[in-house]
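hey so i finaly got around to running the thing on Energy-coupling factor transporter transmembrane component T from Corynebacterium breve. pasting the sequence first so u can double check i didnt mess up the copy paste, my clipboard has been acting weird all day
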Amino acid sequence: MNLLKDINPVTRLLGVMIFTSPLLFTLDWVSATVALVLIVVAAPLCGVGYGRLLKRGWPIFLAAPLAGIPMALYGKPGGETHFEFLLAHVTDNSLSLAGAISLRVLAVGLPVVLLSVDVDPTDLGDGLAQVLRLPAKFVLGTVAALRMLTLLRDDVEAMRSSRRSRGLADTNRVRYWFSLAFGLLVMSLRRASKLATAMEARGFARSGHRTWARESRLVGRDFIVLAVCALGAAVALGVAIYTGHFAFLGAL
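ok and heres what it spat out for the 3d tokens, dont ask me to read them lol
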């Protein structure tokens, strides 16, 4: 089941902003937890299994605890002190803030993973230009960049296979990954230069009115998705306010 099938990519983008923006103004753990529960429930309905969500969202799962560490060490002190050294001051309140920050990173990051799955760059470009009325140069550059991004994994695999065939994979791992990253950077710069020249030769850099081959507009289903995203954000904040856990940014 995929309720987001044939939904305009702009709707997905706006839905992420509507759902996550209110969560940025509070630091309580209740609203973040409610938002995470809603995300977990909605994932299968959006055509994203839990395995796929974990696979695509591993950087967010990695960043969440890392974001909480500075808050635990340097957050607003309060309650019992557990550890203190120089500027570091770990207390009950700082640990609570650290947990809330970690949950909030997940609550803000996972919707991006959920709603960006299977988005076609060309459809996104059509929506940005025709629905949001963004400049054509910016839209075309974005579409080209997203197209090139899909080739990144293939480039990495090709370079790893090339180095393995030449016996370079058995060297120091740090040096190996550094050389791989440098080679990938060089390849990306060369490809970007060729792409920019090709696009300019085909008239993509010209200003003025530009027509689009495919029509992109919002229909009834798109507005329903936006309303659901707004309702989810309202429920998360409403539960936090009702339980008395709502904490504005001033709590820092």
